Predict the 3D structure of the following.
Amino acid sequence: MTYDLAIIGGGPAAVAAGVYAARKRLKTIFIAKEFGGQSAVSTEIQNWIGTVSLSGADLAANLKKHLLAYAADSVAVKEGALVEHVEKTAAGFTVKTSAETYETRTVLITSGSARRKLAVPGADQYENRGIVYCASCDGPLFANMDVAVVGGGNAAFDTAANLLAYCKSVVLLHRSEEFKADPVTVKTVLANPKMHAILNAEILEVTGRQFVTAIVYREKDTDKKVELPVQGIFVEIGSVPSTDYAKNLIERDRFNQVVVDPRNQRTSTEGVWAAGDCTNGFYHQNNIAVGDAVKALEDIYLYLRAK
């Protein structure tokens, strides 16, 4: 059979589109490796609108429950499947997993991205026990604490600016001689008396007991090893969009993010939309991903009706 729509992904953007597709009775194949997206590992999420606080695991469970409540005979959910390739055909598109191939008239790419992890001793051990990858999700948990931000781009400085609102102090550690962030942003953030930045800092290790207690780095200029006491470490060293399966189908930017029209989330290929963290849109957050996905779904619905 040929579906009206294939949704690729299992995070908030994918589920939002899936719920809307079900309510509009679009014959949809929903393909997800798992539910929840990056936030599934968060210990507490305080900015998911409508819910004061919940864990990442609860968010993932709620997303799945919400989709299945409306899926009925409109949305076929394939959980545990990973899309390997999407290609254009005369009638639409084929979406291939390791086990099956699906025919569809349209495609919505909502496969998100994976944060680049801090690859030093102790980083894996203390992930979600002091090491975090989402300031908007977990930042308020570190109120009145000393924290570090690893990175030197705009994302790192944005994270630092957010943390300054409630943390006791913020130290930004960057491995290079110059920051990658916009000079105006750097100047503004560093003007805060609670903020300090260190250049030429090579991260060596994360230490702790039950939770993080320090980050260890080497001053490249002096070769001196420094142990900086902190209770939280926010890692902002980039992310890797999950878009390789569609690299020959749509335009991507130099970061491999899908290039979209922000008015309707259309990609460079007719019949393909994208939303969420895999796109080149600004401000990658759960609530924004949901809005973009709903916007895309509304446009997909109008597109299919016009055919």
About this structure: Residues 117-235 form a domain with the FAD/NAD(P)-binding domain fold (CATH 3.50.50.60). The helical segments are 12-23, 56-71, 135-138, 154-163, 183-190, 286-306.
